[in-house]
Specification:
Strand order of the largest sheet: 3-2-5-6
Largest sheet: 4 strands, parallel
Number of domains: 1
CATH architecture: 3-Layer(aba) Sandwich
Main location: cytoplasm
CATH class: Alpha Beta
Protein name: Uracil-DNA glycosylase
Number of helices: 10
Function: Excises uracil residues from the DNA which can arise as a result of misincorporation of dUMP residues by DNA polymerase or due to deamination of cytosine.
Distance between the termini: 36 Å
Oligomer: single chain
Order of helices and strands: HHHEHEHHEEHEHEHH
Organism: Constantimarinum furrinae
Strand content: 5-15%
Subcellular location: Cytoplasm
Length: 221
């Protein structure tokens, strides 16, 4: 099956693309996009992989679903297109970065600059129907992204996995914590953050400390 995805990822995941579940998933996605408004745009479904090639990944941030409002989703978890208001979860992420690292916050909520530095911004489910959160869950995307995480865990060394919220933490079972740093905390959504489960986690400074310790350049958050 020919999937338009960055070349190194295409090689790493070649076996996955030939499995029956993935073929059924692609047929489902094609049907959904042909009959409904879906996000992100079709050419951005694999944007997280295109922006962060397999051999350049240093950090993995795991989201759940793409944003389901018009113009928001750009294929990177928590990220929005330039000119789009920052959603509440992203605002809370930026607030924690400011508190943790005293870094000047970017004007845009577009996280492509992170992706270019090796941050894989991966949603567990890569597509969604407009205004219907979770509408493409349990169709095969979760199995695919499990395979992505397993492949990174097995074939790469000293990565940082940031698992925010219960949904992301479940993916932690695919990660070898002896080889990689796994940091968990509550989800940055207002519901979780306002209950004290997000702020003060210091994941951004901890990530950079680990990367430097392992001979890698830190992320400019």
């Amino acid at each position: 099956m020919d999937v338009k995805i960055e070349a190194h990822w295409k090689e790493a995941l070649s076996d996955e693309f030939e499995k029956d579940y993935f073929k059924e998933l692609i047929e489902f996605v094609k049907a959904e996009y042909s009959t409904n408004q879906c996000f992100p745009p079709g050419n951005r479904i694999f944007a997280a992989f295109d922006h962060t090639p397999f051999h350049k990944v240093k950090v993995v941030i795991l989201g759940q679903d793409p944003y389901h409002g018009p113009g928001q989703a750009n294929g990177l978890c928590f990220s929005v297109n330039d000119g789009i208001s920052k959603p509440p979860s992203l605002l809370n992420i930026f607030r924690e970065i400011l508190s943790d690292t005293n870094t000047q916050l970017p004007l845009s909520g577009n996280l492509e600059p992170w992706a270019a530095q090796g941050v894989l911004l991966l949603n567990a489910t890569l597509t969604v129907r407009a205004h219907k959160a979770g509408s493409h869950q349990n169709k095969g995307w979760e199995q695919f992204t499990d395979a992505v995480i397993s492949k990174l865990s097995e074939e790469r060394e000293s990565l940082v996995f940031l698992l925010w919220g219960g949904y992301a933490k479940k993916k932690g079972s695919k990660i070898d914590s002896k080889k990689h740093l796994v940091l968990t905390t509550g989800h940055p959504s207002p519901l979780s953050a306002n209950r004290g489960y997000w702020f003060g986690n210091k994941h951004f400074s901890k990530t950079n400390e680990y990367l430097i310790k392992n001979g890698k350049s830190p992320i400019r958050w």
